[in-house]
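Task card 7
Instruction: Convert sequence to structure tokens.
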Amino acid sequence: MKINNKLINDLAKLAKLEFNEQQSVEMQEDLKKIIGFVDKLSEIDTENIEPLIYLSDEKNVLREDEIGSMLSQREALSNAPKKDSDYILVPKIIKK
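Output:
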């Protein structure tokens, strides 16, 4: 892969970044190092290595859903910072 000013400018445009000339040169050098590192990884023999699907052997421990005690409407409204006679009032988020 050829890394030049055009590639850096195209990437900067896609990422909505702006670089001056010095920063562009630094980005070219950094990108060359990154691509060199990735090329090194391609040299590793992975013939008999299984792909890593999960990072750990832990399994999710799920509990059964059980109906427990519930608040009555009056109890729920008693803790609400703002309320109507039957409802909890919340700030309006969606504007029409």
